[in-house]
């Protein structure tokens, strides 16, 4: 199964990187002119194009870049000259810390809320949880991020407002800097996990199988934990997998609010400055992360339900 999934991931990687590579070529202007500087001659501009391969056909440029990328060479920044892989290695841990923390918060809060709502469908707890879930879905991440900065950082002084600290240097300070961005990202995730889990559990608990267990005298708690959650585990895993990918994408906006030097800031600045190798490298790594998440999800599917292969 893993081999088949890996083979299926190859076209995804090629199509995603090819699409981004093509879009970058549609951006107006000439990066060679920017690199050559003011008052550069046509000969100097042509030399810059040849130096960076910008004078080659599109497919030749893409093929050469992809061949190097799969070998671990993501080229160098056109502006700073720094290896793209070095820039990514510096920024990726900041992003992944926020993503992982946000995902853990979404599960730690959303799963209990979903179970509470499903255990008393139609009751006041169910209504309260669904109201909170609807509110969480409706609130934009960037607006909540700004609200958290104004309240918990600037007014209360409990958390840093901007920046980040490498986890290897000071784990506690690193977590303090990551908590507010993670909360902003997790708000919608909590709502989504709670709603989907509640819906799946209510359906399972109303099934004929569960009614039979009730008739046999099995306790409601045992039915919920041993039968209900087991039957919805695959659906819950799907929700968590999709949520992880969405949180990863949403970090671009939240990192900008908190001025975190992560992958979002890296790709935005590179796009503004038309530093194409950096944009392409970040997209390539992001696609690999998404493919890895999907592959891990497929493996866990077979663990939770051996019938899935």
From TrEMBL:
It is a multi-pass membrane protein. The chain crosses the membrane at residues 7-27, 95-116, 128-154, 247-272, 278-304. Keywords: Cell membrane, Membrane, Transmembrane, Transmembrane helix, Transport. The keyword Transmembrane applies. PROSITE patterns: ABC_TM1. Residues 92-297 form the ABC transmembrane type-1 domain. SUPFAM superfamilies: MetI-like. One of its GO terms (cellular component) is plasma membrane. The keyword Methyltransferase does not apply. GO terms for molecular function: dipeptide transmembrane transporter activity. It is found in: Cell membrane. Belongs to the binding-protein-dependent transport system permease family. This is Peptide/nickel transport system permease protein.
């Amino acid at each position: 199964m893993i081999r088949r999934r890996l083979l299926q991931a190859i076209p995804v990687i090629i199509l995603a990187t090819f699409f981004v590579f093509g879009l970058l070529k549609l951006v107006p202007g000439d990066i060679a002119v920017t690199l050559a500087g003011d008052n550069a001659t046509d000969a100097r501009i042509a030399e810059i194009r040849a130096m960076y391969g910008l004078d080659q056909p599109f497919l030749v440029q893409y093929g050469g870049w992809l061949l190097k990328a799969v070998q671990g060479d993501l080229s160098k920044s056109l502006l700073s000259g720094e290896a793209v892989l070095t820039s990514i290695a510096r920024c990726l841990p900041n992003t992944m810390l926020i993503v992982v923390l946000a995902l853990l918060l979404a599960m730690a809060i959303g799963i209990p809320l979903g179970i509470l709502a499903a255990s008393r469908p139609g009751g006041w707890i169910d209504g309260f949880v669904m109201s909170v879930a609807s509110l969480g879905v409706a609130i934009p991440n960037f607006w909540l991020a700004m609200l958290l900065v104004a309240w918990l950082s600037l007014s209360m002084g409990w958390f840093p407002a901007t920046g980040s600290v490498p986890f290897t240097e000071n784990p506690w300070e690193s977590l303090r800097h990551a908590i507010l961005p993670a909360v902003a990202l997790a708000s919608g995730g909590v709502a989504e996990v709670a709603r989907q889990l509640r819906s799946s559990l209510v359906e399972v608990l109303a099934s004929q199988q569960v009614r039979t267990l009730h008739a046999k005298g099995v306790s409601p708690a045992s039915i919920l934990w041993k039968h209900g959650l087991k039957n919805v585990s695959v659906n819950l895993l799907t929700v968590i997998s999709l949520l992880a990918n969405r949180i990863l994408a949403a970090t671009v906006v939240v990192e900008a609010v908190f001025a975190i030097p992560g992958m979002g800031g890296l790709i935005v600045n590179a796009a503004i400055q038309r530093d194409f190798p950096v944009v392409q490298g970040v997209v390539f790594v992001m696609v690999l992360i998404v493919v890895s998440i999907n592959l891990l999800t497929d493996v866990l599917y077979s663990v939770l339900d051996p019938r899935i292969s």
